[in-house]
Amino acid sequence: MTMQRITMPRLRLMGEQGSLKILKARRLLAVAVASAVGLTGVVAVAAPASASRQSTGAAVQEYIDVNVTMKDNVFTPKRVTVDPGATIHWPNEGYNEHNIIPNKKKAEWGDKLIGVGEEYEFKFAKPGVYEYFCSIHGSPGRGMFGSITVRNADGTVPSSKKSNAPDETATSSGKSKTIRVPADAKTIQGGVDKANPGDMVLVSPGVYHEAVLVTTDRVVIRGVDRNKTILDGRYELENGIKIIGANGVVVENMTARRYERNGFFWTGVKGYRGSYLTSTRTGDYGIYAFDSVEGILDHDYGSGSPDAGFYIGQCFPCDSIIRDSISEYNGLGSSGTNASGNLVIANSIWRYNRAGIVPNSGDGEALAPQRKATVIGNLVYSNNNGETPAIGAAKLAQGNGILIAGGSDNLVTKNRVWDHDVAGIVSVLNPDKTVFFANRNRVINNIVSESGEGDLATFGGEGNCFSD
């Protein structure tokens, strides 16, 4: 391993009066760097496989032997063509666990769990088309999916059999209907499966032990009673409601609890809304939107997630808002890797997490760096809670109210921030494979107090403005 000498920028700490402070600067410097490193983690990168042939087209690449990289949340390249006998390697270079599930049931290949830095490989000996997906972040033909085509012995490409991917041609009949659960369908999934674009699935009070998958556009899923319409994963199911590639889906007025991954999850969509939702005790995020734009999360509650209660990530422009919500007892109150462009976090309460609001840049997701988000009108306090479930990044970021890690051109304004062990509002660099500096952030017209090391701080960037 070679070591690279890095000249570190100066750490600046500012108190309530804006004067430069150096009290306990060494500790804040350590926390700032550790927090930044922890947000991305250490990634093991697999060595590239040998390649003998590659097409010039962007859609399909042809190889003898190939790496298919897993990031969050995509296989790259998505479609690969190889000769018989080729070995495909799937290194996980993202920051989340993934898996490889063949569309064909009882297939002899695939892996149910591939951790960060781990790799799965399989040698494909027989010609055919092998379709697969990550069940955590996709479904057949939706979200995080891919295919391997193995040529015939004569070099021709075998034809694909009918895919298990969902039919994307469904259209509204022009007259919407309400499907009542359990009156018209015994389960929420049954109601969703009956729905056409424009329909509503109305869910009566009760406890539903199911993981719901939505792939139909413009469906509304509404609980009759937020506190009594409950999806319960019993720590066995992955997601409460997962919306993959379905635009304009609304989920509202219900609770999801005890899921291994997420309470409510949108991925790869244009247009989404989650309103009056409660997510508690999940294994990853509470309310989660990835690679999705034009969204609204409002009047929601997220609690008990080791990563973040709320997460909007990998979007530009996001054209999305989190508002009038509460996030508490999570690793991070809100996080968003590479979430940029008209993303607004407003009028919400972020408290009793390990760290409060954490926009950040990272190589594990596309569209880096994070930039041009607005954090306005929030109450951010007492994010020092060392008793919450937490991923490593949240543990390292503990004690900060608003932490911009490698993000640029963000506006943080008119927030009330208090009672943090480290800093109230801080911008730091984030050293991933790429070193992301925090540049040109504007922190203005906030009220910040009761910070252990510094009310305001900046480290690793230029052009950042802190003012009354």
Largest sheet, in brief, is:
20 strands, parallel
- What global shape is seen? globular
Strand runs, count: 45
- Round the Cα radius of gyration to an integer and report it: 23 Å
| Average of pLDDT | 86
Instruction: Provide a count of the helices.
Output: 3
Main structural class: mainly beta
How many domains make up the 3D coordinates?
Answer: 3
The helix content is under 10%
Record the SSE blueprint.
Elements: E1 11-14, E2 20-21, H1 25-40, E3 61-62, E4 66-67, E5 69-71, E6 74-76, E7 79-82, E8 86-91, E9 98-102, E10 111-114, E11 119-124, E12 128-139, E13 142-150, E14 178-181, H2 188-194, E15 200-203, E16 206-208, E17 212-214, E18 220-223, E19 229-232, E20 239-244, E21 249-257, E22 262-267, E23 270-280, E24 287-290, E25 293-298, E26 301-303, E27 308-313, E28 320-323, E29 326-328, E30 332-337, E31 343-346, E32 349-351, E33 355-360, E34 373-376, E35 379-381, H3 392-396, E36 400-405, E37 411-413, E38 416-420, E39 423-428, E40 430-431, E41 435-436, E42 442-444, E43 447-451, E44 454-459, E45 465-467
Parallel strand pairs: 3-7, 4-8, 7-13, 14-15, 15-18, 16-19, 17-20, 18-21, 19-21, 20-22, 21-23, 22-24, 23-25, 23-26, 24-27, 25-28, 26-29, 27-30, 28-31, 29-32, 30-33, 31-34, 32-35, 33-36, 34-37, 35-38, 36-39, 37-42, 38-43, 39-44, 42-45
Antiparallel strand pairs: 1-2, 1-44, 5-6, 8-11, 9-10, 9-12, 12-13, 40-41
